[in-house]
Specification:
The complex is a heterotrimer of chains A (about 325), B (about 350) and C (about 500).
Chain A (H helix, E strand, L loop, with lengths): L13 H25 L6 H26 L7 H17 L5 H26 L3 H22 L7 H6 L3 E2 L2 E2 H19 L1 H11 L1 H6 L4 H27 L10 H11 L11 H20 L6 H21 L5
Antiparallel strand pairs in A: 1-2
Chain B lengths: L18 H6 L1 H19 L6 H26 L7 H17 L4 H25 L4 H20 L17 H8 L1 E2 L2 E2 H19 L1 H11 L1 H6 L4 H27 L10 H11 L11 H20 L4 H30 L1
Antiparallel strand pairs in B: 1-2
Helix pairs in contact in B: 2-13, 3-8, 3-11, 3-12, 3-13, 4-5, 4-6, 4-11, 5-6, 5-11, 7-11, 8-9, 12-13, 12-14
Chain C lengths: L2 E12 L2 E12 L3 E5 L6 H9 L6 E6 L2 E2 L5 H7 L1 E4 L11 H5 L14 H14 L15 H12 L6 E5 L7 H16 L3 E5 L3 H7 L2 E6 L2 E7 L5 H9 L16 E13 L7 E7 L2 E6 L5 H8 L7 E6 L2 E2 L5 H7 L1 E4 L14 H6 L7 E2 L2 E2 L1 H14 L16 H13 L5 E5 L7 H16 L3 E5 L3 H7 L2 E6 L2 E7 L5 H9 L5
Parallel strand pairs in C: 3-8, 3-9, 6-7, 7-8, 13-20, 13-21, 16-19, 19-20
Antiparallel strand pairs in C: 1-2, 1-4, 4-5, 9-10, 11-12, 11-14, 14-15, 17-18, 21-22
Helix pairs in contact in C: 8-16
Classes of the chains: A mainly alpha (about 325), B mainly alpha (about 350), C alpha/beta (about 500).
């Protein structure tokens, strides 16, 4: 037993977190410096600012999703729920005639309900979350399509369009909110007993059960959170896009899985965190930005993400696969 | 226990055919559902029996059956493949590109089939030999392949070389897309022949038996000397090749190797197979059941068209069906596991 | 009768653990040879060596006069040696006939399977052994016992000379057991040999020609089955002479007026039947049962890990309805898991996380973990159990087996429970750590905590317990109190036919 390589096991303290996240941080920094030095347009304020803006919205959306992965499950319906919340808000505003905030609240409730359904089916019927959330994905995409058709050609009402662009003290509100929420969540990950229990469930759910931790409840709430935060991201993105789009959220789940795994999460559960996921998102954003700067065919982006995903999963398996998993 | 207790051996007859046993077979329930759908369509819409409608049904069922055969084999061995739609598009594109370069249609088709085989090997090695999760691998493959398709097209509008019906193109390929024997399209005939063959092999041939053994209990199968990984790899290659053929067919028939070929088809095929009795857990399913599942899906889509239901509602229905099929499959697996203990 | 298989001075080590020490015995052709011994005696390892699944570290295996040079299942297959493991290697989704003949001997000329012939082949085989199972039935619809029989039938064929059966009757009911024993007798009548590993002395006495007893990895004796009694076998299995009593602890401090924990009429889905027991305050109550006795199922049911089919649990006088682990912990009961490699530890998380897992909420204020309290608590328990680790931030993965057990024990005690249900507390632990663990358990009882010990190690139970309940075939068959607790008496109840 002493012979097993312990350098990969992560005791949950600050030093360990830095050790496992350190590679990603270094990669991000290197990438950043490389782009800044070689491409003048990269360091332009506009470019960096728009990167930060887009990142802030994705960061919010990935919060709940990360915790589903920490618990050892996966939610592939995030992209569809994201699109649903955004499109539904627009629909409620234009077709339903609701005011801005009631529309947003209602849309988020619907999104959360989808998350609840996912969580319920996974915990109650022990269904494979991978397959189930793909089903949810299709169903919700269908609903989004119906809503989008109703909204064809129209631009959203002004107050909705301005929502994402709200600025506080000169900076986009989303950046402030995302940063703040990120800080709070990272703090909670380290210090909250509830979050600690969640990691324990992900690490070994049977052991967690023996110590009185309610495994099913954690999973259910994680799916709810995943849908909720995806919904928030969707509402903000719809506001940014200013009109309904059937492409919204398509393929988002892959970006998020890749970002989460780059950030330390594992398909086997028990690891990862929002800090890592956001760093992963930043890494992907920089790569894509770099590809644009270097005039690489934009269609290569898809290939790039696909390859990155497979590599990340491969590495995850090598490091984290438990015996008999 | 005395030896005399062993009196005349009793022959136990094969179990009698009762209604409940019959209904327990997924193929039977699928068949019933399809029959009901057919009745609804025949009596519900005047256009169902229209020659055009039936012709277009043939050309959707044909390729779907090919895909379902491959997917069934994979389900039986305990895995699955989500990249089939993307493989279809890429194979169609590659074949068309070869044609536009002036090569004869046989070369073009071999090229397309080659694409399918390569994708199959890629998926098979990563899933069966390296041990990665099939969902992630084949979805990653889907992403990569779709990206390659877009790269080949170069973005924007379809290029002239992607059109299959121009005069410089070898008419042999075009014929593949439109040949009829009597009222039946060649693709449907091909599909029927392959499906029959595959069903018989799975049910009655030792190799089919090995596939079920490998999927039902891989550890026990391995201890019997069955090469589980090799069988799965073969399944992936078969799936890729069939997908390539389906993709090339669609490109030939529509006259355009579009980037949209096969979009979303993987999930429809999975639903078809699950409805037909396959299970994510492996070791179950049949080609007959999957073909019935394909009929189910195609008829549902046709119903949507004839009754003019929007594409989005189709997705809603398809998604709901997938969820219910997955949940009931999971529930059944759970009960089987509990009973087996 | 000539020797079919002979083991000569076979030893086998797995790393530092020596499973077999200089074992020599032989199996004759056409005999039913039983291998008897308690858990950890070396029976599984012996079977694996004979089957070729593993090579001996020292010594030779001779089959039909030829010394084996290569050890693999394929080689053993060629030599006509087959084995049926305890975990069934069957195919649930296929029919009985397909399970009986996975290699499909009934092909027609085109290479296709002739289903009718397959079913006839299966029926013939089933009839040969007088079994009433339809060949085209799905495997999943059979009982566990029937599945076991089908799997055994699968291994029987012309070319087989020796069939090894690992605990074949552990999941069978009385009738199925009879069928199986008849089957074995038929095999013998055909000149085949059977190596039959079992705990159940009555069965062993019924059908074996000769019996080999192992103990602690060593060969004890091979006896001819002529005029043997249960006691003869038990004495050799357990082996410590009547005079050599393990040191029992001083008089028990148990308070028989107070029932700390009780179960009434508990039955389980896995077959456990109507178990009623009481645990008195300050008592150490042992539960002993061999494989298939229902003891492990009982332990899970008592803690709410599995849902009982019937019965109630109560802590002091309060009934705990719909028991779950959380409710049990709140009621003051904790549970030590039997298999630390599967559950009971968070292998890659710090010791602090492991030790404080059940009490995180109590050590938190307003939802935030109070780190100093966590550290203090962890340190306190770590010291109390003398856990040797490189600091509290190290992970169980880096500790020895004994220390891992201590970590689990510490976690069990942080909620300050009144009752502790302990499973295999010293499994895979060296002698020194065993003694320490036993000391701690006794201390617990002396301080008023009630302890239930589920263990398969008789010496442990003898030295620790005030009372021992013995289980067999999913029910309680006896209770031993005080000086009645000896390895002999416990084993007699567990493996024999008596009821006490």
């Amino acid at each position: 037993m002493a012979a097993t390589d312990q350098s990969m096991s992560v005791p949950f303290n600050l030093r360990g977190f830095a050790a496992s996240g350190g590679i990603l941080v270094a990669a991000v920094l290197l990438l950043f410096v490389f782009l800044a030095v070689t491409k003048a347009q990269f360091s332009a304020y506009n470019n960096l600012y728009s990167l930060a803006f887009a990142l802030s919205i994705d960061a919010i959306a990935i919060f709940g999703f990360t915790y589903v992965m920490v618990l050892g499950e996966i939610d592939l319906s995030v992209g569809a729920v994201y699109a649903l919340a955004g499109t539904l808000t627009g629909w409620l505003l234009k077709v339903g005639g609701l005011d801005l905030y009631p529309a947003i609240v209602l849309a988020l409730c619907v999104a959360t309900a989808v998350g609840f359904a996912n969580g319920f089916l996974v915990t109650r019927f022990k269904v494979n979350s991978l397959m189930l959330t793909i089903g949810t994905l299709i169903l919700v995409q269908g609903v989004v399509g119906v809503l989008a058709t109703d909204l064809v050609g129209g631009v959203y009402p002004r107050d909705f369009r301005l929502l994402a662009k709200t600025r506080w003290f000169g900076i986009n509100a989303t950046i402030i909110v995302a940063g703040f929420a990120l800080a709070v969540l990272v703090f909670l990950q380290l210090r909250s007993s509830l979050f600690r229990k969640m990691y324990l469930v992900g690490e070994n759910s049977e052991t967690a059960r023996i110590y009185g931790i309610r495994t099913d409840a954690f999973k259910l709430w994680a799916f709810v959170a995943s849908a909720f935060f995806a919904g928030v991201g969707g509402v903000l993105t719809a506001s940014r896009l200013t009109h309904a789009s059937t492409d919204m959220g398509v393929g988002l789940e892959f970006t998020y899985v890749t970002a989460a795994i780059l950030g330390g999460a594992s398909l086997y559960g028990g690891r990862g965190g929002v800090g890592g996921s956001v760093l992963g998102l930043l890494f992907l954003a920089l790569i894509l930005n770099g590809l644009v700067m270097y005039n690489v065919n934009p269609l290569a982006q898809q290939v790039a993400i696909g390859v990155l995903l497979i590599c990340a999963v491969l590495v995850d398996m090598i490091i984290n696969k438990k015996e008999g998993a | 226990m005395s030896a005399e207790a062993v009196a005349t051996p009793k022959t136990v007859p094969a179990q009698s055919i009762t209604l409940s046993r019959l209904l327990a077979q997924p193929e039977v329930t699928a068949g019933i559902v399809v029959a009901v759908l057919l009745l609804v369509l025949v009596f519900g819409s005047p256009f169902f029996l229209n020659a055009n409608n039936l012709a277009s049904l043939q050309t959707s069922i044909g390729p779907m059956v090919l895909l379902a055969i491959g997917m069934t084999v994979l389900f039986v061995t305990g895995t699955f493949d989500l990249s089939i739609g993307a493989t279809m598009a890429l194979a169609g594109l590659v074949a068309t590109w070869l044609l536009s370069a002036g090569l004869p249609w046989q070369v073009a088709m071999i090229g397309g089939v080659g694409v399918g085989a390569i994708v199959g090997v890629f998926n098979g090695v990563l899933v069966s030999y390296v041990g990665l999760n099939p969902l992630i691998v084949t979805l990653g493959a889907l992403y990569v392949l779709r990206g390659l398709v877009d790269l080949m097209i170069g973005g924007g509008r379809p290029q002239p070389w992607m059109y299959v019906s121009g005069p410089e193109v070898d008419p042999g390929y075009y014929a593949f897309g439109s040949l009829h024997i009597g009222p039946l399209h060649i693709i449907l005939l091909l599909a029927i022949v392959l499906a029959l063959g595959a069903d018989v092999i799975l049910r009655r041939h030792p190799i089919g038996r090995l596939l079920y053994l490998a999927g039902d209990n891989p550890d026990a199968a391995r201890s019997l000397g069955i090469p589980v990984r090799r069988l799965q790899l073969a399944g992936f290659v078969l799936c890729g090749v069939l997908a390539a053929i389906a993709g090339m067919f669609i490109a030939a028939r529509t006259g355009l190797a579009s980037r949209h070929i096969g979009s979303g088809v993987e999930l429809q095929i999975i639903i078809a197979c699950l409805v037909g009795g396959a299970s994510i857990a492996g070791g179950r399913g049949s080609v007959l059941g999957s073909v019935l599942g394909v009929l189910f899906i195609t008829l549902v889509n046709n119903a949507f068209n004839l009754f003019e239901v929007a594409a989005e509602w189709q997705k809603v229905v398809v998604g709901s069906v997938l969820i219910s099929v997955v949940v009931s499959d999971g529930w059944r697996s759970l009960r089987r596991a509990r009973r087996g203990k | 009768m000539p020797d079919l298989v002979e083991l000569r001075h076979v030893s086998k080590s797995y790393g530092p653990v020596q499973a077999l020490k200089d074992v020599s015995f032989s199996i004759r052709a056409g005999e039913v040879h039983a291998l008897l011994g308690e858990n950890g005696a070396g029976k599984s390892t012996t079977m694996r060596v004979v089957r070729g699944e593993t090579a001996p570290s020292k010594g030779e295996v001779v089959v039909a006069g030829q010394t084996l040079t290569r050890f693999s299942p394929a080689v053993s297959d060629d030599l006509g040696i087959a084995m049926v493991h305890q975990e069934l290697a069957i195919f649930n989704g296929l029919t009985v006939a397909e399970n009986l003949a996975p290699d499909l001997p009934t092909r027609n000329r085109a290479g296709f399977v002739n289903r009718k012939a397959l079913n006839e082949f299966a029926t013939a085989k089933l009839n040969l052994f007088n079994l009433i199972i339809a060949p085209d039935q799905l495997m999943s619809s059979l009982t566990t016992g029937q599945k076991q029989i089908v799997e055994i039938l699968r291994t029987i064929s012309e070319s087989r000379r020796l069939i090894i059966l690992d605990e074949p009757t552990s999941s069978l009911n009385a009738q199925e057991t009879e069928t199986l024993l008849d089957l074995i007798k038929s095999l013998r009548a055909e000149g085949k040999s059977v190596l039959f590993v079992s705990h159940r002395i009555p069965e062993v006495l019924e059908i074996s020609d000769r019996i080999t007893v192992l103990r602690d990895g060593e060969y004890i004796e091979t006896l001819e089955n002529a005029g043997l009694t249960e006691a003869d076998l038990v004495q050799r299995m357990v082996g410590r002479d009547m005079g050599e009593l393990h040191r029992r602890r001083a008089s028990s401090g148990a308070n028989r007026d107070i029932v700390a924990f009780g179960a009434k009429g508990v039955s389980g889905v896995g077959g456990l039947n109507d178990v009623t027991l009481d645990l008195y305050q300050g008592e150490v109550l042992g539960v002993f049962g061999l494989e298939g006795s229902g003891a492990s199922e009982l332990s899970r049911l008592l803690f709410g890990l599995d849902v009982p089919a019937a019965g109630t649990l109560h802590v002091k006088e309060n009934v705990v309805p719909n028991p779950t682990p959380l409710k049990m912990i709140d009621a003051g009961v904790t549970y030590l898991s039997p298999d630390r490699s599967e559950s009971g530890l968070f292998k890659y998380r710090a010791l602090t996380d492991n030790i404080t897992a059940p009490v995180l909420s109590r050590l938190s204020r307003m939802g935030l973990i109070r780190r100093t309290k966590v550290q203090d608590t962890s340190r306190a328990y770590s010291d109390r159990f003398e856990i040797k680790a490189g600091g509290l931030a190290s992970t169980p993965a880096s500790l020895s087996g004994g220390n891992q057990q201590k970590v689990m024990m510490a976690a069990c005690l942080t909620p300050d429970p009144d009752v502790v249900i302990v499973n295999e507390p010293t499994r895979g632990v060296d002698v020194g750590a065993k003694a320490e663990m036993h000391r701690k358990l006794i201390e617990l009882a002396e301080n008023g905590t009630s302890v239930m010990v589920f263990s398969s190690e008789l010496p442990e139970l003898v030295s620790l317990c005030d009372r021992v309940i013995v289980m067999r075939s999913n029910r309680i068959v006896g209770e031993l109190i005080g000086d009645e607790i000896t390895e002999d008496s416990a084993m007699t109840l567990a493996a024999g036919s008596a009821v006490h």
